[in-house]
């Protein structure tokens, strides 16, 4: 038996690091990286998949190759959208999010530029922020947001330019022109543009997510700008109900057209193609559910993999929940048994695994099994 001090009791539900490839996703990340490197802009890519399907992990891999690696061709801006509605009203959250994007553009570019070039970049950023602040201030009930943004612009820039140069800007096209100049001022021989990673759009209120998508399209549809969105289409589409009503056969095309206008490349997360073998079995070994000998038992391991695939499937988050549940059950057995001999537990390890899979994915069947354990007597009448 593995000693408790040598193993973990749970698997953390965090996105995989860029260098990790636990589920055999590298080929997909490499293909998307190559696509983006050679893409014309503006461009919006949507990584579509249900919660826990690995969207953020894939974005981490893309960011490493496109932004973080030495000689990477792009500046990177990362926005966690769910953080904004927590401290703001929906309308304010959208405006703060966009202001945050503008600030990040200047920040990440100016940090790597020469002193004189950094001053030019900050100058354009200040103009864009003031212009955006004026627009925000004219939205009903959001005057304080415009004031905040204008104050932020004063704190952001250390420039000698006239700070009032853009105070009269009030139209979206004028703002876009200022933003395009800001982006162009950052681009040079070393960097060809920006990749914006917009994460967790499906974790915020769907109507707010729709507002974010519309404003990104209307304001940041700029050359040298590529957006990568993490999105669950089934969740965000609910935000279109105020526009089109309940989705039906008659109006489904309107729902699709909305996304088609914003997203030029929809990429569905290849959950069905994930290779869970190594991740599942290594994790079970980490929590002490499998020992060295069992990990090498191909018959046992094949059975466990089969049970997982037939129940929770290949969603990484669902697999982690399964593993953590098994860890707790294992610890309960260790604490309640009356003998140090765990032969019975080992002998029934595949059965206990299958039962936990059933409990998680098919709770009604599991409940029936608890009440009527002689499943050999189940028939059509029982069903």
The poorly predicted ranges are 1-5, 139-170
Can you give the helix content as a percent range? 55-70%
**Sheet with most strands: strand arrangement:** 2-3-4-1-5
Distance between the termini: 41 Å
Mean pLDDT: 78
For the secondary structure, the number of strands is: 5
**What fraction of residues sit in β-strands?**
5-15%
**Helices and strands: which structural class?**
alpha/beta
Report what the structure shows.
- By secondary structure, this protein is α/β, with parallel strands linked by helices.
- The chain is built from 18 helices and 5 strands.
- It has helices at residues 26-37, 55-68, 83-86, 90-110, 115-137, 143-156, 172-186, 206-219, 233-236, 241-244, 252-262, 277-286, 292-295, 298-310, 316-336, 343-347, 349-361, 363-371, and strands spanning 43-48, 74-80, 193-199, 225-231, 265-268.
- It has a 5-stranded parallel beta sheet with strand order 2-3-4-1-5, sandwiched between helices.
- α17 packs across α18 (363-371).
- The protein is elongated.
- The model is unreliable at 1-5 and 139-170 (pLDDT under 50).
């Amino acid at each position: 038996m593995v000693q408790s001090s040598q193993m973990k009791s749970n698997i953390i539900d965090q996105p995989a690091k860029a260098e990790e490839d636990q589920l055999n996703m590298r080929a997909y990340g490499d293909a998307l990286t190559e696509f983006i490197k050679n893409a014309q802009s503006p461009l919006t890519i949507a990584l579509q998949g249900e919660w826990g399907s690995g969207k953020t992990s894939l974005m981490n891999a893309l960011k490493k190759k496109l932004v973080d690696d030495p000689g990477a061709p792009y500046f990177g801006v990362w926005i966690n959208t769910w953080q904004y509605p927590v401290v703001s009203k929906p309308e304010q959250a959208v405006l703060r999010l966009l202001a945050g994007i503008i600030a990040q553009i200047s920040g990440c570019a100016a940090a790597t530029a020469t002193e004189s070039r950094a001053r030019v970049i900050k100058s354009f950023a200040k103009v864009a922020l003031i212009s955006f602040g004026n627009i925000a201030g004219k939205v009903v009930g959001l005057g304080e947001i415009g004031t905040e943004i204008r104050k932020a612009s004063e704190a952001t820039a250390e420039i000698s330019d006239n700070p009032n140069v853009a105070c009269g800007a009030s139209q979206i096209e004028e703002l876009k022109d200022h933003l395009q100049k800001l982006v162009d001022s950052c681009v040079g021989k070393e960097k060809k543009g920006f990749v914006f990673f917009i994460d967790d759009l499906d974790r915020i209120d769907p109507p707010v997510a729709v507002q974010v998508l519309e404003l990104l399209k209307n304001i940041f549809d700029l050359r040298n700008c590529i957006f990568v969105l993490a999105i669950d289409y089934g969740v965000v589409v609910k935000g279109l109900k105020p526009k089109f009503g309940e989705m039906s056969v008659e109006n489904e095309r309107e729902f699709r057209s909305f996304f088609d206008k914003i997203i030029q490349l929809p990429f569905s997360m290849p959950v069905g193609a994930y290779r869970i073998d190594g991740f599942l079995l290594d994790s079970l070994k980490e929590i002490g559910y499998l020992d060295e000998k069992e990990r090498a038992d191909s018959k046992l391991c094949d059975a466990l993999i089969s049970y997982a695939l037939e129940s929770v499937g290949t969603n990484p988050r669902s697999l982690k929940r399964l593993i953590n549940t098994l860890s707790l059950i294992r610890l309960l057995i260790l604490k309640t048994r009356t003998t140090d001999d765990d032969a019975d537990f080992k002998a029934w390890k595949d059965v206990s695994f299958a039962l936990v899979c059933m409990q998680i994915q098919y709770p009604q069947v599991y409940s029936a099994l608890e009440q009527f354990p002689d499943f050999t007597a189940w028939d059509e009448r029982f069903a």
